[in-house]
């Protein structure tokens, strides 16, 4: 059985689309298990010196349109939250507080689905304290989302992602290979099916290319 680590932040519409599409994309792709690992997308951006999509006006507009189109094309229910970006810490900590999978106490797919729907199917403010309180009551977390241990766990998962070279969400890691983005699901499927393209020599060759020039910062 293959272990797939899914690093994500509920703030990302592409993470939502990938979450919804994952079972269909990997149907009949062999035996696998998914570990859902919440991380702080903003911290990944900071670690790699990147701007977020919403910090570039034209990119923010494009992302909204692109995500809406992708949702329609794939038959995924989508209503953008009232404001975006929003502070995702409340939903990230709630997910971990509900964690029950393995020794790492990660959230299961049921918990992640409920939170993704809270963010991406309501059209409301995802960070609204009253809405979060209702969601917390519904999910009945075993731990308090505000506990220091939850905050430490979220920080540790984010640092783990940075150490792995993860620069965006969603990212899927299997056999130490990184697959980034909603549009990488087909690539992930091909790998799980044993596509020869992923032979070590070819995989490494694609990354082993010298830089021709670098932009000054």
Helix/strand layout:
Elements: E1 2-8, H1 13-25, E2 32-38, H2 41-48, H3 57-74, H4 89-97, H5 109-120, H6 129-139, H7 148-163, E3 171-174, E4 177-180, H8 185-192, H9 200-207
Parallel strand pairs: 1-2
Antiparallel strand pairs: 1-3, 3-4
Helix pairs in contact: 1-3, 2-7, 4-7
Explain the overall architecture:
The chain has 217 residues and is α+β, with helices and mostly antiparallel strands. The protein is 47% helix and 10% strand. The chain has 9 helices and 4 strands, in the order E-H-E-H-H-H-H-H-H-E-E-H-H. The chain has a 4-stranded mixed sheet with strand order 2-1-3-4, sandwiched between helices. Helix 1 links the parallel strand 1 and strand 2. The longest helix is centred in the N-terminal third of the chain and has 18 residues. The chain starts with a strand and ends in a 10-residue tail after the last helix. The model has no long low-confidence stretch (mean pLDDT 95).
């Amino acid at each position: 059985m293959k272990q797939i680590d899914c690093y994500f932040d509920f703030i990302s519409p592409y993470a939502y689309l990938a979450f919804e599409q994952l079972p269909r994309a990997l149907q009949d792709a062999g035996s696998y298990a998914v570990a859902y690992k919440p991380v702080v997308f903003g911290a990944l951006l900071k670690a790699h010196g990147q701007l977020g999509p919403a910090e570039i006006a034209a990119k923010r507009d494009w992302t909204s349109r692109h995500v809406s189109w992708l949702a329609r094309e794939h038959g995924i229910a989508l209503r953008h939250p009232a404001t975006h970006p929003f502070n995702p810490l409340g939903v990230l900590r709630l997910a971990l507080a509900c964690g029950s999978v393995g020794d790492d106490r990660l959230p299961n797919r049921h918990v992640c689905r409920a939170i993704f729907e809270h963010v991406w199917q309501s059209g409301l403010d995802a960070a609204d304290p009253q809405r979060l309180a209702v969601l917390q009551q519904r999910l009945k977390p075993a731990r308090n989302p505000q506990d220091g241990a939850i905050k430490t766990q979220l920080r540790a998962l984010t640092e783990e992602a940075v150490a792995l070279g993860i620069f965006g969400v969603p990212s899927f890691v299997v056999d130490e290979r990184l697959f980034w983005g909603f549009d990488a699901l087909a690539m992930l499927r091909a790998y799980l099916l044993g596509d020869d393209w992923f032979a070590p020599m070819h995989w490494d060759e694609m990354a082993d290319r010298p830089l021709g020039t670098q932009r000054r910062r």
